[in-house]
Amino acid sequence: MDSTTPETFDAIIIGAGISGLYQLYRLRELGLTVRVFEAGSGVGGTWYWNRYPGARFDSESYTYAYSFSKPLLEEWDWSEHFAAQPETLRYLETVADKFDLRRDISFHSRIKRATYHALQNCWKIETDTGEVARARFLITAVGVLSAPYTPEIPGIEDFKGSSWHTAHWPHAPVDLSDQRVAIIGTGATAVQLITEVAKNVGHLTVFQRTPNFCVPLNNRPITAAEQPALKARYLEMFKRCRETYGAFIHDFDPRSIFSVEAGAREAMFEALWQAPGFGLWLGNFHDIMTDEKANAILADFVRRKIRQRINDPKVADLLTPRDHCFGTKRVPLESGYYEAYNRPNVRLIDLRATPIECLTARGIKTGYTEFEFDVIIFATGFDAVTGALTRIDVQGESGQRLKDKWRDGPRTYLGLQVAGFPNLFTVVGPHNAANFCNVPRCIEQNVEWVTACIRYLREHRLERIAATEEAEELWRAHCEEVVAGTLFPTANSWFMGANIPGKKRMFLAYGGGLPRYRAKCEEVAAQGYAGFVLE
Ligand code: NA7
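That is the input. Now the predicted structure with NA7 docked in place:
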C-alpha cells in the first residue's frame, strides 16, 4: 500500500490475542470494516509469546474459554483442569480458523505510532514495516502483560552465551540437558519455568531477589468421562464467574477469619491448600485482603507449608517470604516448585545478600564471584498494564502524547477511554477490572461494552465519543478510594507498578471487583454514556 493513500477502515484493533480476536468477531457482526495489526506471526497474544516450558493457566481451563459460542464450547475438550500453553495456543488458533478471523489480521505488524486527526475525526496508524492505515475507531487490545521488562544490568551486551526473556522464548526446541543455565527472577513465570527446567538441565542457578508465597496448583487431567458433565455446567460456571470478585469460580468467604476458632480455620486452610487453583487466595476469609492481622495468620500457615518441602533449612529460609502480605503480589501456583531446590544440580543465589554487579562474557558477577553459564534466562516480568500502550507513540487531540499524560500514573475513564483521545478504546486498559481478573471473563465484558457503545453511536448517527476530564478524575479518585481499603498498596508488585524503576507507584487495576465494575459500566451506558461527550 502506498503510504500516501492509507487504507481506511471503520475500526483498527491493535493485537490478535484473546481480546483482539473477540473484538474483531463482534465488530464484524456489526458490519464494520476492521483491520487487526499484530506484531507476532500468529494469533494468541500472551499464549503466542510466552512459550517457555511450564507455561500454563492458573485459571480453570473451562472458565478461561470464550463463552460467546455454544458450538465452540461443545467442540473443544480441555485436556487438563489447568491447560498448558501449547493447548491454549491451539485453542486460540482454532477460534481464529473457526470464525475465519485471519483474513482481517496483518501479522508481523507492530504499530509504532497512532495519531488522532481532529479535522477528519480519524486515527492514523503506522507500523514498523511502514504500513499506514486509518480508521474512525482505534481499539487497543494489547494485553496486561505484553511489554517484557529486562533490567538494565551493566555488561548485559557482553555475555557470549545465549540469553532471552521468558516472553521471547525461542520457537525452535531448546535443549538444556547439558547446559549451565541461570534464571533471574522468581515471580509466577519463573516458578513455572524453574520447576520444568530443573527436571532436565545440566546445572541450574536461580537468582532470587524476593521469595513469593507459592501455592500448589493441584492440576490433573480431565478424563473423557468427565467432559460431558463439565460441558453441561458451562452456563452455571460462567454465571458464577460473573458474580465473583475476580471472575474465578473461587470467591471470598464472607466470614471474618476471627469469627472462626483456630482449629477450624487451620482445617479450612488445609482443605484449600489441597484443592485446585486459587482457592487459598480468592476463596479464603474476606479479611485476609483487608486486615494485616488476618493476613498474617494465613501467611504463617503458608510459610510452614513451604518450609516442610525443602530439605536444606538455609534454602528454606531464603525461599520463605517475609516482606509482604500473602496475596498482595500475584500468588504463583506451582507443581513441585519447592522440591526443585532439593535436586543436587539446582542452586539458589540470594540477591539481597549479593546483588548482581554485572554480566560478563562468561556469565553473571555478584560481589567477588563470577558464575559461568551457557544460557541466561530473564524471568524478570513486564512493564504491566501501561507499558504496551506507552511504548506506542499515541498522540491525541492537540498532539498530546499518551505517554506524557500518564507520566504521573495512568488516567482513564472506566479503564476504557482516555480524555483527550477521542474514539480510542483501551480494552483491558489501566484502572479496569480486567487487570485483576480471570482475564477472558473481563475481556468479554470489555469487548461487549465497546461493541455496544459503537453500535449506539452508529444508531444515533454519532461519530465521536470522548471521555470528559471530570469523569476521568472521578474515576481515578474512585479507583484510589476502593484500593485504599485493601492491602494491595502495601506490596512492591507489578499491580502497583513497583517492579519498574521510575514508574509511578499506583494500583493499576480496578480493586472493586468485576461485579461492581460491570454495574458501573452498565450504568454509564444506560445513561446515554454519562461522562462522555458524543458528537
Ligand atoms: P513478576 O511477577 O514481575 O516477577 C519478576 C521477577 O523478576 C521477580 O522475582 C523480580 O524480583 C525479578 N526481578 C526483576 N528485576 C530484577 C532485577 N533487576 N534483578 C533481579 N531480579 C529481578 O513477573 P512474572 O513474569 O513472573 O509474572 C508476571 C505475571 O505473568 C504474573 O503475575 C502472572 O499473572 C503471569 P522482585 O520480586 O522484584 O524482587
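The chain has two domains: 7-43+101-147+384-534, 162-225+259-378.
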